[in-house]
Amino acid sequence: MIETRGLSKVFHDKKRGAIRAVDNVSFVCKPGQIYGLLGANGAGKTTTLRMLATILEPTDGTAVVCGHDVVDEPDKVRANVGFLSAATALYPRLTSREMVEYFGRLNGLDEPTLKKRADEIFSRLDMNSFRDRRCDKLSTGMKQKTSIARTLIHDPQVMIFDEPTIGLDIMTARTIIDFIRECRQRRKTVIFSTHVMSEVEKLCDVVGIIQSGKLLAEGSLAELRDHYRQHDLEEIFVTVVGPYQTNPEA
Amino acid sequence: MNLPAISVVYRKELTEWLRDRRTLISTVLVPLLAFPILMVGITALATVMIGNAEKEIPKIMILGGEDSPQLLERLHKLDKLEVVPYSVNWRDQISNKDIRAAVEIPKGFQAALTAGTAQTVDIYFYQGELKSSFGADHLQKAIEEYRDSVVRDRLAAKNLPASVLTPFVIKQENVAPPEKVGGASVGGFIGYAVILLCLTGAMYPAIDLTAGEKERGTIETILSSPISRLDLVIGKFLLVFSASLASAILSVTSMGLSFAALGHSHVMQSSGEQSLNLNLGFASVVAVFFMALPLAVLFSAVLMTIALFAKTYKEAQSYLTPLTFLVVIPAVASVMPGVELTPKLALIPVLNTSLVCKEIITGTYHWNSIILIFSSTCVYALAAIFLAVKMFQREDVLFRS
Predict the structure, then answer these.
(1) In chain B, which residue's Cα lies nearest the Cα of A12?
(2) For the residues of A143-181, what is the DSSP string, one character each?
(3) What does the mean pLDDT of chain A come to?
(4) d(CA A81, CA A52)
(5) Does B401 touch chain A (CB under 8 A)?
(6) Does residue B206 have a pLDDT over 70?
(7) Which of A114, A142, A181, A195 could be disulfide-bonded to A104 (CB atoms 3.0-4.6 Å)?
(8) Is B235 in contact with B5 (CB distance < 8 Å)?
(9) ipTM for the whole complex
(10) Are B223 and A92 a contacting pair at CB < 8 A?
(11) Are residues B187 and B285 in contact, defined by beta-carbon separation less than 8 angstroms?
């Protein structure tokens, strides 16, 4: 389970001063549920997810992931989290197998368990044909499968996906979408950020709309449609976000 | 600190490092090949060139001397010189390398010689041009032999022995052991080379493991794993340190083999009257490594800290290039004659190690200085590691946009 309480993050920029990238965000994401964080570029999605993965430290507030506080026990949080984003690349000079095993060892798996789990994952993701190929020689789809295997190796209870399909072709993106669904079936807690409406409609049990670092609306798709009296998610998004849109020319 | 986690990071970084052509070239190939190429290659090339120059019979021109047949005859009879007919443009011919040198015999030279009046014989040549220098040397030697014969004839005429000109002989003799002689000749250079290669060996791995990781997008991947930042930095640091040491060890081994090859080759035996003594004590070389250890730690940590600020490999290279000068300048300063180790200099990093290495190689062990330098460099090194760990904990450095 993920629970954020007044999560905030302020960055300091020499030219622009203090920038509140995430502002007092609170939500709960339960096991077996996919929580979709929907927002435009720069809305604060990545910063929120990076704080949940303890890559960044909150300025104010906190979050509890699998019973561990992200500020007080970041190592324990990371041991329970699988983090996948467009920015989480692979080590080019390691093979697919070495990459997955490296993260298994970093997660403290013993060698017999690591081998057993790696074999299971490679078979499940159909990776055996390229498991000993270097990552810089893999196709985009193979790389994504390796990334998925890397996040799964320690069997985390929480999966964090930060725009995982950005820049991918349809078939590779589909692999990721199927994988996210599978995580829900396995009763994992899944949080997923995107700005693609169709992905939210396909996957999310709960949607949080974020803009300028603030969580402006939250609920199931049906609840949001009911509340804003509109069926199309894009229209709902524009209605919610519109008043908070900043004019780049201003 | 979690040692198994550090070991996992180190082994992974080692695997990647051994598969990286760029870092292998800078850490393994350059130190292995630089010295043989520089020392054996250049010496062999110089020997061949000198040999070719020596084989040539230089063409020379005689200016004047028609009234001095004795000297003219002597010069014409020389096997090592080819006398060409006089030409007005003799200066141009020397500059254009058509002839190698010219000698001007002053008017009335022989008559003045008979009268006992001192005269000047001018030799013209192309300064800096090897073959011209050889031609001028041959001419000088021939004329000096003629002068000596004149002196001998004059002494004989007055019934004086030749020894009247050399009442006693002066002789210099080395009493220092061969190790010290070798150390004094190349000691400063060895310390300088070890220090510089510790730096260059660490440079590319340091960039690859920090800015390279950012550029490839793997920094977020590794930071999302449960390993602590401290363990991650130490694991990475150990690899950079290993590369630094590997580079230094390979370079000194290569240097030693190159010196040995030079010492045994006929090149060294035949080219110099006093061949360079290259016997360096094994204990001294080991001691130099020992002194270089904290410096390698310091370099590895500083390079990682600076390179971490960069977003790309290229940006990191531009940050680290000035650092090379900061290291080269004190290292070169220590090789300069007259720069000796003082208590103040013993606290200046790089310069202190370089100076003490120079002393160690000559077999001189000032233990107070050695302890002061080793411990002060250790303190700098620990401070640098602390700084590197702190930098890895700064979000604005890791995710600088």
Answers:
(1) B396
(2) HHHHHHHHHHTT--SEEEEESTTTT--HHHHHHHHHHHH
(3) 89
(4) 9
(5) no
(6) yes
(7) A114
(8) yes
(9) 0.87
(10) no
(11) no
